Amino acid sequence: MAHLIATQWQPLLMGLWNTILCSIIALIGSMIIGTLFALLEISQTRILRVIGKVYVEVFRNIPLLVITMAFFLIIPMYIAKINGFTAGTIGLTLYTSAFIAETVRAGINSVEGGQLEGALSNGMTYHQAMRYIILPQAFRVVIPPLGNQFINLVKNSSVLAFVAGFDLMYQGNLIANDTLQTIPTYFIVGIMYLIITLPLSYYMRHLEKKLA
Amino acid sequence: MKRLWHLLGLGTLLAAMLLTLSACGQSVAKQDVLARDEQSKQITWGGKSDTRLFGLENIRTGKLEGFEIDLAKAMTKKILGPNGKCVFVPVTSGTRVPLLKNGNIDAIMATMTITPEREKQVDFTHSYFDAGQSLLVKKGSPIKNIHDLNRPGKVVLGVSGSNSVKNVAKHAPKARVLQLSDYAQAMTALKSKQGDALTTDNGILYGMAAENPGYEVVGGNFTKEPYGIAVNKNQERFRNKLNWALREVERDGTYNRLLLKWFGNVKGFNYQEMKR
């Protein structure tokens, strides 16, 4: 195994970097989009609620691989040339955002109704009440489930391997096929995923303790 | 301290998993495959299920069909007699060697080129088909041969685990290679313009061109790819028997009959040259 690392560290590191990059982009993107759609889902306007619901149900109920393949194969045919990495990152962002929307919505619902009423009766607008009163409390509640989503996101980024996104899993496949050392290669790849997910998991625990 | 114990526990678990996995591989390798197959009257082959002309799953019947499948059936009959049974496990370029190593299949007949690197891991029989690598492009494409691809910005599609992607690095080092998981996916990627050309062995490409009329094989062969049947290391008896069976089907005309059946009508493919 040491020999494998010694000869293949370059593609492995490149894969690790691409996986981290994709995860960071998708994490930030899906947080923003997810929160946005959570707000749509609880909006007071019916049409906005419908839009939010449809978005969440579509992206939550289609397998990630199908979404990613669609971006990899269909978008370049009709709209613009995008590579595997971009297609995979977009797919992962939209897919995760649907789950984050549901998580954040649950968090907002868990904040007592009196809070919103109180804020409104103190002269705040609906947006101010959301921004300063409801969302901060909601996020505190949803940190543990969000942590799960983030860890899933990192692992789900392995979908890039299927659209030649040069991520860790893709490089792992190539090395396994090249050297035919299948088990040691995937073992190393597994460890490298742990290098990303374990600190993330510890950080989320830390955050949970700090804010609780 | 507690955290240290956690980490130690995790490490031990992983090490135990690795040991178990590698131990499985060893016990399988020690068995005599030929003796076992002669007793059970059955040979388990790893075959392609996504490659037209060689091994393709018929969606209606669920059975594999192709030149390699027929050849494997004929060879099984030679080795085990007329009652010999032939079981096929679908494999891809990426899964075939692991499946052979862990004993799920006895032999691989799946468009596998005999190469020195692979010979370190598995043993090959004599070649049963002499293919060569070529290119598939959209009709009217500016790409006419492998040299046209040797430019920055050119993208070549291939299938991961196949020998052909390595050959591109040798013959067109400036091109970027995208490796996808199977031929169907690579073909779809070519159609959605994710690459300028698709590369693999000519026989497979002709099969794809027959299915996709807007695409053609160009540039002739730029490598020689002799296909061999792969068996595990230390299975000399089984390998010798396979070599014998291969010679037998070549001698009694079965080989040429199968060649005619599968490649006789393929446009651009000179099957007369391949006769044995």
From TrEMBL, chain A:
Short name of one Pfam family: BPD_transp_1
Principal location class: membrane
Localization: Cell membrane
InterPro entries recorded: AA_ABC_transptr_permease_3TM (IPR010065), ArtM/GltK/GlnP/TcyL/YhdX-like (IPR043429), MetI-like (IPR000515), MetI-like_sf (IPR035906)
CDD domains, per database record: TM_PBP2
TM annotation in the entry: 16-40, 61-79, 183-203
Keywords: Amino-acid transport, Cell membrane, Membrane, Transmembrane, Transmembrane helix, Transport
Gene3D superfamilies: MetI-like
A GO BP annotation: amino acid transport
Residues annotated as domain ABC transmembrane type-1: 16-204
Keyword Transmembrane helix: yes
MF-aspect GO terms: transmembrane transporter activity
Mode of membrane association: Multi-pass membrane protein
Annotated GO CC locations: ATP-binding cassette (ABC) transporter complex
Family in the record: Belongs to the binding-protein-dependent transport system permease family.
Protein name: Polar amino acid ABC transporter inner membrane protein
TrEMBL record, chain B:
One of the record's GO molecular function terms: ligand-gated monoatomic ion channel activity
Origin: domain of life: Bacteria
PROSITE patterns in alphabetical order: PROKAR_LIPOPROTEIN (PS51257)
Keywords, comma-separated and alphabetical: Signal, Transport
GO cellular component, one term: extracellular region
InterPro entries: Bact_solute-bind_prot3, Iontro_rcpt_C, Solute-binding_3/MltF_N
Gene3D superfamilies: Periplasmic binding protein-like II
SUPFAM superfamilies in alphabetical order: Periplasmic binding protein-like II
Residue ranges constituting the Solute-binding protein family 3/N-terminal domain according to the UniProt record: 42-266
Residue intervals of the Ionotropic glutamate receptor C-terminal domain: 42-265
Signal sequence bounds: 1-25
One GO process term, biological-process aspect: amino acid transport
The keyword Nucleotide-binding is annotated on this UniProt entry: no
A Pfam family reported for this protein in Swiss-Prot or TrEMBL: SBP_bac_3
PANTHER family, per database record: ABC TRANSPORTER GLUTAMINE-BINDING PROTEIN GLNH, AMINO ACID ABC TRANSPORTER PERMEASE
Family the entry assigns: Belongs to the bacterial solute-binding protein 3 family.
Protein name: Extracellular solute-binding protein
Annotated organism of origin: Limosilactobacillus pontis DSM 8475
